[in-house]
Protein 1
Amino acid sequence: QVQLVESGGGLVQAGGSLRLSCAASGLGFSSYTMGWFRQAPGKEREFVSGISWSGGSTAYADSVKGRFTISRDNAKNTVYLQMISLKPGDTGVYYCGAYYRGNYLWDRPNNYGYWGQGTQVTVSS
């Protein structure tokens, strides 16, 4: 069975840093574009960052460019999101998604076939 498990969330003050991890099992990890999304209460799931299954391409939402870095380790079936200079607006549940052979429209949640359970990130002012 496919399983994506996020970890690394927590409570931090503005300006702090967190590193999120998403460990995947039950799928051919290197065939999937991996994405990070976040969702605040009462709001839609929002694209944060993505990394291609091949070629090493990355993408970021404008709101996080220069502060967040996505990476993956295919040998460990894990994708990471390094977050620095966190702001209160970054607060939300962060989800890891897997998009089979994803070549475009990375910001569309319905393109992702698998999701983790999410990890809470709370940034206080």
Protein 2
Amino acid sequence: QVQLVESGGGLVQAGGSLRLSCVASGSIYSINAMGWYRQVPGKQRELVASLTSGGSTNYADFVEGRFTIPRDNAKNTVVLQMNNLKPEDTAVYYCNALLKTTGSIMTRPYWGQGTQVTVSS
């Protein structure tokens, strides 16, 4: 019913930049928020940044001003601009959307398939 498709991951040197993009499609009635999480093997998935439908953003402490979610995205799209990347940013990055599908009364989270980000030192 709902698909989240990510793009933009890859390999970059420390200090470089990457731009991740995620598009949600399907039987979407409304989206409360979209954002990005990341996960490394053996660790829990953690929030990187999120953007609500009202335009509020939330960033993890480790972002330290290096990552940005632009507010002026296309409909049902969330972008993560990552600058000054560090080797410790290496992870699989997952797109997340809190949304309500057509005909449903419940808001629930949906996930993309993940995109690998590797930062070399």
Protein 3
Amino acid sequence: QVQLVESGGGLVRAGGSLRLSCAGSGSTISSYAMGWFRQAPGKEREFVAAISWSGGSTYYADSAKGRFTISRDNAKNTVFLQLNSQEPEDTAVYYCAAGDMLGYGDYEMEPPYDSWGQGTQVTVSS
């Protein structure tokens, strides 16, 4: 079972950028689909972005399209989430997750993912 650790969160002004990292250990992530989710205070966790195990397909929430980019570097056993043009509404704890049996339509749903990191805080000021 892969262990995941997020990093790269912090404080940024509206319009600024951050790059989040999700490092895997205990197992390679090369055979896993990887996703990013976020949870704002008082709200439920929501889907942000996902990438297939091969890296050939990416998926984004409507709020992320055109602003965020998910990528992976299997050689480094790491997945990234580039956050650009950030808005105060992007303030949340960001989590990465891994799943090994995801099909079309499953990437934005939490149950298919079976490994989760502890999250990293992103705060966007206005």
